[in-house]
Amino acid sequence: MRATMWGILALLAGCAGPGTELQVPIPPHQGVAGAFAGAPPGVVSVAAFPEAGGTGVLPGAIGERSTIGDISMGQVRIAPSPARLLQDAVVADLIASGWNVLPGGPAPVELAGTVGRFALRTDATALYWDVTLDAGLGVRLVAGGRQAARDFAAHCQERTYVWPGSEIIARVVAQCVDELARDVRQDAALAQALGTP
Amino acid sequence: MRRWHRRSARPERLAALALALAGCANLGTRGEPPAGSVGVYQRLAVVALLTDDLRLAPVGTSDGKTLQAGWDTPRLAGVIVQEMLGPAGTEVAILPAPMPDAATLEGPGWPQAAWQQARGTGTPAGGALAGTQAVLVLRERAISRMGMEYSPAANFLFGGVIGLAAGAARQDEEFRRAFVVRQNTGLDEAIGGKDPTCLVGLDARVLDATTGSPLGAADGLLGQQQRPEALASPLEITDAEREATRPYCLAALRRAIAEAVSTLRLTRAP
Q1: Which of A74, A121, A183, A186 is the most buried (most CB within 10 A)?
Q2: Do residues B42 and B16 both lie within one domain?
């Protein structure tokens, strides 16, 4: 009985209008030194990662919250946008590894990133929601005659027994950003292209 | 006795649950295909019978104004379908579609008329539908300023006999195929705020590309998106405001198309 009432309350709580939009602020990634630290530090230029987007996709929109039957309960938009979040995370790790980072333009080392996907979903059952983010990042690094191009993917999920709000979504997004940043800074091919022995 | 109580309580709980779900279903739409979805058709053609019009319809007044949006809306509707189904492995061809006359568009055979039109386009060698398994036809639906569906019958019932004479005029005035930008005024503004909402309605059909026979139907799909900044005037829009409104109207269109794609089951789980 109690479980049923909680279920009904949770469902009712989720009954926001379709125009209802959830704005979720994402905390910045804290820079961590990685394999890049093994290379002689220098100057790296990081161009702005292009927004993935699509026709009719609003900036920062990453998906929709849904309830049972895949019924959408409104869009979720994050700030900063996925491209900016991932760019900032990679830059923070480069700085933590001792590199000086320029915002784009010619430099001895140039790094470019592409957000492959950044899709949130909140699959619902009668008892819980699974908040899931599928994220992908492509990184291309050119350093003199050396270059490397790598694709990374992260799948982050957290379960909630109450209507998924901004806190849990922020955690799941931040987890995926941290995982992608970790994969980039620990990648051997990128580190070698940077000059790590 | 105890068992009797347990049994009697169950239908009430189920009824409450059903009501809660029904409330949610009325408010929400279906989202886009999730990552990893697989397209049901390998090759699909899209015909978008959409206007490129924008209607300013302030809530709380009987005024309204329709103007050309200049957003290339019919083509962008096809692009949105491409963006949704492309990752699922469906090759989507966007077919140009001149808007048919009103009688054809309102008649029961509008999907087949669009299919025949599509079949007639393309190169003489094969036609635009060669190699295509299905045709998705999107028809813009006339909606009122409140985002209610086009319904002459409802007009008649609510307006009564007196309203019948005015009904024809009201239909033209209030129901129009266009993006509707609805901004609250007066009391509505005091209650609901001023930020305008862009709405668009769609009907959708999937047809067999070879025979034109219907494979699926979805009617009355409504997309809406609030713009977080009011227009200076609910009845006028500057070029800058129209450009700033565009992403929100296209977001509304994307939501309606997402619901069409979902309802018509154009993708399936991997």
Answers
A1: A121
A2: no
Distance CA(A99)–CA(A77), nearest Å, equals: 32
Distance CA A81, CA B121 (A): 41
List A residues 88-147 in contact with B (Cβ-Cβ < 8 A).
117, 119, 121, 134
Q: Would you call B100 exposed, middle or buried from its count of C-beta atoms within 10 A (0-12, 13-18, 19+)?
A: middle
Question: Are both B229 and B213 inside the same structural domain?
Answer: yes
Q: Strand, helix or coil at A142?
A: strand
Task: Check if the interface score ipTM surpasses 0.85.
Answer: no
Record the tokens describing residue B240, joined without a space: 């800058």
Q: In this structure, what CATH number is given to the domain that contains residue A171?
A: 3.40.50
Provide, as residue numbers in chain A, all residues whose Cβ is less than 8 Å from the Cβ of B27: 15-18, 73
Is B248 part of the contact surface with chain A (CB cutoff 8 Å)? Answer: yes
Which tens digits make up the pLDDT trace of A46-59? 999 998 778 999 98
Are B81 and B69 members of one domain?
yes
Is A69's CB within 8 Å of B21's CB? yes
Which residues span the domain enclosing B10?
A: 1-30
Residue type for A81, please?
S
B248 vs A contacts (CB less than 8 Å): 58
At B164, phi and psi to the nearest 5? -60, -45
pLDDT-derived band at A139 (thresholds 50, 70, 90) equals: very high
Question: From the candidates B29, B261, B265, which should be mutated to test the interface with A, based on the most A CB atoms within 10 A?
Answer: B29
B16 touches chain A (CB under 8 A): yes
Range 30-59 of B in CB contact (< 8 A) with A: 30-32, 34-36
